[in-house]
Amino acid sequence: MRLAVVLTILLAILLALPIEAADLDQSTAAQVTVTSVTLDPEVFMEGDFGTITVEVTNTGTGSVAIRRVTLYDNEIQTLSQSYDTTMYIGGGNKMSFTFTVKADVPEGIYYPVLSVDFRDAGYLRYPVKMQVQNEPLEVALLDKPDTFSAGKKDMVEILVGNPRDNAVNGVTVYPKGDGIAATPTSYFIGMLAPDASRAVSFAVTPSRSTELELHVDYKNGINSHSEVIRIPMELGESKKQADPLLSNILVVYEAGIYSITGDVNNAGLEDANAVVITSGSGVTPTDPYQSYVVGSLKPDDFASFEITFTASNVTRVPVVTSFKDKDGNLFTRETVIEIPAASPSSAGQDTGSTLMVGILVVVLAAVIGGVVLYSWRKR
Amino acid sequence: MMQFTDLLLHPERFFAAAGAGEPNLRVPALIALCGAVVSGILGYLMSEIYAEMFSAAAGAGIGAFLGIIAGISAFLGFLFIWWLVFAGVFFVISIPMEGKGPFTRTLANVGYGLVPMVIGSVLTLALSFLYLPRVHVTMPRNLQDPAALTQAMTGIMQDPIMREFTMVSSAISILFLIWSANIWIFGIRQARELTIRNAVITVILPVAVYVAYMAYTLIAGVPAVSGGI
Fold it and tell me: Would you say residue A371 lies in a domain?
């Protein structure tokens, strides 16, 4: 009888033991929690690859066996393998699980689920918030000249702004285009925080009418993206360009040499450097002023000039004004000035009439002398 | 009937005949008026060169105004300088030389003596038609700028054609002035009852001063006050 009682008690103890152990594993597993989720990039763009790193922490004292860790979602593709090897996470320890995903989904917020399969105590399911935003970097043209000139360096300024909810990095701006020389060749901005912007300037020198492309390359996580703005560059005359005008023109013809004097005024908005004035085709520049170097003229400034030349059978003379901008590009202006004709035939006619008048004066002197003498002799 | 050939070739005979009666200013005044009219026309033509310069900036009206002013100035200049002033000068110079006779006779005889100068004026006027159209007028750089205006006017004076015309007209003026002076000598002698020596001194003195002045201006290039001839 006593033996039967003892056996019954032992059996009861044996039957009760697994139940207590199972309860113990359940409570230990409950102390494993997700303490950190890191997305790289923080906000995906459609088609971006990235990683989701989940950190779990065992806040209990006993170790917990983990059989499998997976991340799954109907729309977000998980490219990396699940963690299928049984592992233990000791009490107070942390463990990270990283999954590679591809956000081949439209814009929106998604919740791929992290599932931790405890070997002895069920599952831990944790939905990870993942945002997909297609907003690219904004590139705005801040300043450019109204008109570009061939060979003339002009500044083009753009503003690169980040309207996204996450920072992008490796931001690089560079100009591109046929027949365009630009400095600097590229501009590295680096990281651009959300709602931040940076202004970038380029000195651009076109050689012909073309299109300037300003590329902005950046990375969202490991994904490269690019934006571009195109600026048509039609060559023309700059509205601000120096504009030397000739005025107060005075033409003097003496001893076979024409002399043109006047003022040259800079009616433009930029400096005219190395201003030189000379006579154009159809006449022969001669000393003392074959050409006249005025030098620099600031806007609204003026200076006097004088050029000398010889010409025959010409009534209109082109006067050429050349000047350089601050980059050394040469510009020319031509002003046609009317001059009195001085042909060789008229010069010959002048000489003939002068001779006749001279003879007349001599004859007059002789006649008058004779008359005076006669009047005294024949009183 | 007075013969103009006598006046030009035998002035002593002419004035001896004219001095018989009372002095008559009608014919001398007519001679002076002829000379004044020719000088006025010449003055008007000369002013056209400058008028062209001013008209470009101030309109055609200013050109016509300048022409009228120049014409009247030359007209009055001939009348006063060559007739009245020279008669007055001869009269005053002859006073210390015991000159007698009324001023009206001096005035009349000086007026007769202007005949060669009228001929010279006509000749100068004819030459002006040859020269003046060929003078190149340079426009002033700025009419408000006195320096530019002076430069432009100097430019006209320095024009080779203008310089030649100035020289020729001055030479003609001097030649015919000498002829007139020759007539004046006999006219003043008769009007002021002078010896031939005193008459020569009376006439030659102011005429020589004037000729010297003209020669100086011709060489120095300063515009001379010629009274139109």
Answer: no
Question: Tell me: the pLDDT tens digits for A208-231?
Answer: 888 999 999 999 999 999 999 999
pLDDT band at B186 (very low <50, low <70, confident <90, very high): very high
Residues of A in contact with B159 (CB under 8 A): 254
| Gap between the Cα atoms of A81 and A128, Å rounded | 17
Number of folded domains in chain A?
Answer: 3
* A50 pLDDT above the threshold of 70: yes
| Residue range A331-359: mean pLDDT, rounded | 72
Amino acid occupying residue A292: Y
Verify whether the Cβ–Cβ distance A250 to B151 is below 8 Å.
yes
DSSP state of A83: B
Residue in A closest to B7 by C-alpha? A375
Question: Looking at the structure, do residues A183 and A206 belong to the same domain, yes or no?
Answer: yes
Q: Which residues have CB under 8 Å from A274's CB, separation 6+? A: A293, A295, A296, A322, A323, A324
Q: What is the CATH number of the domain that holds A60?
A: 2.60.120.570
| Same domain, yes or no: A265 and A219 | no
Looking at chain A, which residue has its C-alpha nearest residue B156? A252
- Give residue A41's domain range: 29-132
Tell me if A250 and B178 make a contact (CB, 8 A cut-off): no
Q: What is the ipTM of this complex?
A: 0.86
3-class secondary structure, B226: coil
- Residue A197 counted as domain residue: yes
